[in-house]
Design goal:
Layout lengths: L2 E5 L2 H13 L4 E5 L12 E5 L7 H17 L4 E5 L12 H11 L5 E4 L7 E4 L2 E4 L2 E2 L18 H6 L5 E5 L1 H4 L3 H13 L2 E6 L4 H10 L5 E4 L7 H7 L18 E6 L4 H12 L4 E3 L2 H5 L4 H10 L6 E4 L4 H11 L1 H21 L2 E7 L1 H10 L4 E9 L2 E6 L5 E5 L8 H8 L2
Parallel strand pairs: 1-3, 1-4, 2-3, 4-11, 5-10, 5-11, 9-10, 12-14, 12-15, 13-14, 15-18
Antiparallel strand pairs: 2-16, 6-7, 7-8, 16-17, 17-18
Bound molecules: adenosine-5'-triphosphate (ATP) and the ligand O=C(O)[C@@H](O)C(=O)CO.
InterPro entries: 4-carb_acid_sugar_kinase_N, 4-carb_acid_sugar_kinase_N_sf, NBD_C, NBD_C_sf, OtnK
Protein name: 3-oxo-tetronate kinase
Keywords: ATP-binding, Carbohydrate metabolism, Kinase, Nucleotide-binding, Transferase
Amino acid sequence: MILGVIADDFTGATDVASMLVRAGMRTVQVIGVPEGPPPEDADAVVVALKSRTCPAPQAVRDSLQALRWLQAGGARRFYFKYCSTFDSTAQGNIGPVAEALLDALGSDFTIACPAFPENGRTVFRGHLFVGDQLLSDSGMREHPLTPMTDANLVRVLQAQCRGRVALAGHPVVARGPQALRAHFDALRAAGARFAVVDAIDDAALRTLAGACAELPLVTAGSGLALALPAVYEAQGLLRPDAQAARLPAVGGSAGVLSGSCSSATREQVAHWLAQGRPAYRVQARALAAGEDVAAQALDWSAAQGETPVLVYATAAPEEVRAVQAELGAQAAGQLVEDCLARVAAGWVQRGVRRLVVAGGETSGAVVQQLSVQRLRIGPMIDPGVPWTQVAGRPLLLALKSGNFGTPDFFAKALAQVQ
Ligand SMILES: Nc1ncnc2c1ncn2[C@@H]1O[C@H](COP(=O)(O)OP(=O)(O)OP(=O)(O)O)[C@@H](O)[C@H]1O
Ligand SMILES: O=C(O)[C@@H](O)C(=O)CO
């Protein structure tokens, strides 16, 4: 193992793993910190935690445990992956986790860069943009758990850290890896512990990867992962594997589950419906009334034969708000997650072998229900979303972050694997 990655949520882990595989690293994702040795035939291992919004001390504990397991497995370089929209609160968890990892590695400096240009996340003059909007003007302003109301990453990260946060801005990034490394040395000598680094495109991320070549720890969104394998290759550590993304054909039938209400997912569901494809809607109110909606959805889907179907709870924000006001946000979410996870288990029992799941929490519930412990990462469907294979089983999963993917994502994903 060359690289050990600690990811602060589930679909985010799959995202970073996909970037590494694209660049030729054989990558395995593990769910939580496992026991026992790491997988043998992997250049990179990604530990998927659920540490984005839990109390900071717990996020630190889990991340340190992941670090120790990755170190024991032979990793010497580490990557703390957070969201490309820098999802966090004033208490953390990005700052506390990054500082704890630095301390544990005996290191005094690292970088922070959530940029993912392919998905419209760029950093300029220390400010994070989502498409053409500042982070603080984007939908992230209203996120229920981690509202992002300040786009200035130096200020946001500084509020979460003991050490000093500085900026490595676009002018120095544009001068290439050597100039950027010299700038890091100067910042470090002046007492900075973090450099927020501007990156407006993939070329900037390649410069950043080159400048970070000797750092034990980097902290970033998934964009930087695309550029790291070339650095490991130049250092003689990695021989990129053109077959890194190859997964076996599994046969069987296919299905789509959607528990995400994010705007990209809503478009994807609307696109599926507009094409007249079979779809079954799960209503949170029916679940709350005690109806066995999962059994109904399973009976309905069995009647559709081999045609891939969609079972979805995806709804517009006002509908979700109304249901949440009646049932409570937590309770409504749990009912929906449990239902979709039971549908997943029923499908797999009946021979579904290729399953697309939309939504991070929803993916977590499905993966838990299916007792998945390891995923081998396969080909990319859209930036940030790969097909994966459940280790040792003829079962392929595509776990989609709410806001990723083109409108035709579901059908495109199903057409990609056999
Ligand atoms: N119709 C609905 N009414 C109430 N809650 C719903 C409804 N549909 C889905 N939910 C809940 O909303 C939550 C959606 O979270 P999830 O993480 O799955 O999607 P997301 O936030 O779009 O994805 P990501 O975290 O990858 O951005 C889940 O808990 C789900 O059960
Ligand atoms: O970085 C991203 O945007 C995603 O991988 C993610 O973390 C979604 O929760």
